[in-house]
Amino acid sequence: MEDVEGLTTWVWPESLWAPISFTRAALIAKGRPEEEWKEFWCSDDGEVFQFIGQDNIYFYGVAQPALWAGVNSADAQAEGTGDQLRQTTLVPNHHILFLGKKASSSGAVKPPLADELLDHYTVEQLRAHWAALGLGLKSVSFSPKVFDPSAPEKAPDPVLKEGALLTNIFNRLARSCFYTAQKHFGGKAPLGEVSADVMAACEKAILEYEELMSRFEFHAVMALVDEFIREANKTWTTLSRECAAKEEEQGAEAYRQLLIDAFQLLRVSTVLMHPIVPTGTELIAEHLGIKSRNPEKCPFGGFFCWNHVFETLGFWADEEEREQGLFKLVELPPRYDFFKKHESQY
After folding, report:
1. What is the distance between the alpha carbons of residues 86 and 48, in angstroms, rounded to a whole number?
2. pLDDT tens digits for 155-176?
3. In 3-state terms, what secondary structure has residue 81?
């Protein structure tokens, strides 16, 4: 390269292998064999994505590939093993500002500690908010109201914007599906063909989501799923009123097609939101009865596996359920929340 002679690149090398150490520590904490780290970092069907500040790419993004290649070469020569470190995919981000200013532990403006944030927000509220910020495009201010002395008392908290989708709209859609199935179908979800327009909307959202994820456009992913969940909730509100008007004449059957469509909308919403808010979406999968159908090597029976993303709930039904046209659910307690607000927000 031109104009680099005599220049030195400074890199803290422990930062390069620290993620591998984190992987090993997490496995130990979960009671799993430490050596499983190789399934993440060396496996042919594994891929590691590293989110990194743009200014650091010129340092770590240069040093790591060379270090990995050197380790692989040394291992191969010494032992002839197949445990070769795979090069990672770097995802660049701009700075996240705190109340509009660059913050660091060594600077004048210090960011809040994780424990301090968790005194006011849930993990899922924070994850959803940060995913929506669009740090891949520009530096964006993180402005939690509880840490902003200049925030007007009646102003909404910017951090809770995305969380409201979870605690209000998404919760409502999920509860509506489960409680209606419990009331009219004995705690089972009707199985059958999803309406063509609903299936088309689901497939369109999935394909757009996949394209956006491939470009790491997480803010656009959040906007897409926000619109999808809100539209699904509107569909439920409109059609459930129509079903209620037919209930006296048709009984539970008035709700059959609505629930077939609604559970598909819920399933797709749950799968699309899983990388962003895993805890709440896995609770939905548990109450769908999916976790109990869990093969050892495939969590939640492949419910969140992209290979099955276009499948309907009937894909996970057993033979008896298919014959009956009813999928057994796990009972949902009254006023249950899949996505909870922080206790300080009530």
Report:
1. 8
2. 999 999 999 999 999 999 999 9
3. coil
